Amino acid sequence: MIENELIFTGVQVNYYFICKRKLWLFSHNIGMEKESEAVKIGKLLHEESYKTIEKDVLLDRVSFDFVERKGKIIIHEVKKSRKMEKAHYYQLLYYIYSLKRRGIEAEGVINYPLLRKVEKIRLENEKEIERILDEINKIVSMPSPPSAERKRYCKRCAYYEFCWSE
Ligand code: SF4
To answer: Is residue 23 included in any domain, yes or no?
Structure first.
């Protein structure tokens, strides 16, 4: 296990499942996310869908889309579609894990407002998230990014030009 397991953000955990190269680029501040249309749509969706609840909650380096306090803390993430379901799942699992490491019991909910669906998440396997964090640490510590590999997702990725322009 890496020395400080809470040094990563949920977005980094998400990118680990989407693309290891993207994880590296993002982690090294090669930031193009602001220019991505998909990211803009995601932010708009977030703004419009949940106007009344405590939003964009930040705890140390971990931020959540919004939080409910119903006896226990329930942290929410808002997503457009289920195409990246595994990445969404582990991102939220990491948030729950991070809170537990700080002595706070929490559960998670992924909200898909366009699909009118929710997915509830509980932390059941801490070892697995720790293994993933170790892997993220190894990738981020590499001196150069992993090679680009074509994925269905590439055309919608903010790094598309960076990876694929001649
Ligand atoms: S364009 Fe494709 S290969 Fe490049 S960072 Fe994005 S997902 Fe990864």
So the answer is: yes
CATH number of the domain at 141, please: 3.90.320.10
Domain that holds residue 52: 10-164
pLDDT tens over the chain, length 166 residues: 544 456 788 889 999 999 999 999 999 987 665 444 444 444 544 544 444 455 555 554 556 666 777 777 888 888 877 777 889 899 889 988 988 887 888 899 988 888 888 889 999 889 999 999 999 999 999 999 999 999 998 998 999 999 998 6
Mutate to test the pocket of ligand 1, among 157, 162, 164, 165 (most ligand atoms within 8 A of CB): 157
Domain membership of residue 4 (yes or no) is no
How many structural domains comprise the chain?
A: 1
Is 37 a domain residue? yes
pTM: 0.76
CB atoms within 10 A of CB 113: 15
| H or E element that contains 112 | strand 106-112
How many other CB atoms are found less than 10 A from the CB of residue 9?
Answer: 19
Our mutation pick for probing the ligand 1 site, out of 150, 153, 156, counting the most ligand atoms within 8 A of Cβ, is 153
Tell me whether residue 18 is in a domain. Answer: yes
